[in-house]
């Protein structure tokens, strides 16, 4: 951890230093608002419910490559980030 020693600084200068530091941190947060965390896994049922589609539709999308399922033994999961990436805006 860096240590900062402030010697002979006016209150206005200290205020400016703090404002600049807060501004930098805020700009970085706004570029990437959510901290990096492990991706949440959803079951087939949770994914179908989230997307408001049937399990058959979800299976078809998986076979067509629209959704990328993950298998752990005999269970199938979907990454929440992959689901969000698969959603595309409709252009009119």
How would you describe this protein?
- With 92 residues, the protein is an alpha+beta fold.
- It has a domain of 46 residues: Molybdopterin biosynthesis moea protein, domain 2 (Alpha-Beta Complex), CATH 3.90.105.
- The chain is 50% helix and 13% strand.
- The chain has four helices and three strands, in the order αβααββα.
- A three-stranded antiparallel sheet has the order 1-3-2.
- A hairpin with a 2-residue loop joins β2 and β3.
- The radius of gyration is 23 Å and the shape is elongated.
Please outline the helices and strands.
Blueprint lengths: L10 H21 L9 E3 H8 L3 H10 L4 E4 L2 E5 H7 L6
Q: How confident is the prediction overall: mean pLDDT?
A: 87
Strand content: 5-15%
**Helix content class:** 40-55%
Order of helices and strands: HEHHEEH
Q: If you compute it from the alpha carbons, what radius of gyration comes out, rounded to the nearest whole angstrom? A: 23 Å
Globular, elongated, flat, extended or rod-shaped: what is the shape?
A: elongated
Sheet having the most strands: 3 strands, antiparallel
Structure in a nutshell:
This protein is an alpha+beta fold.
Index terms:
single chain, alpha+beta, Molybdopterin biosynthesis moea protein, domain 2, 4 helices, 3 strands, 13% strand, HTH_17
């Amino acid at each position: 951890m860096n240590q900062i020693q402030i010697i002979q600084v006016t209150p206005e200068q200290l205020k400016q230093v703090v404002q600049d530091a807060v501004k930098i941190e805020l700009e970085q947060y706004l570029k990437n608002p959510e901290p990096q965390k492990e991706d949440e896994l959803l079951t087939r049922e949770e994914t179908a419910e989230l997307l408001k589609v049937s399990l058959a539709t979800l299976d078809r999308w998986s076979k067509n490559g629209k959704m990328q399922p993950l298998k752990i033994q005999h269970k199938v999961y979907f990454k929440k980030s992959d689901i969000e990436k698969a959603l595309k805006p409709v252009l009119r």
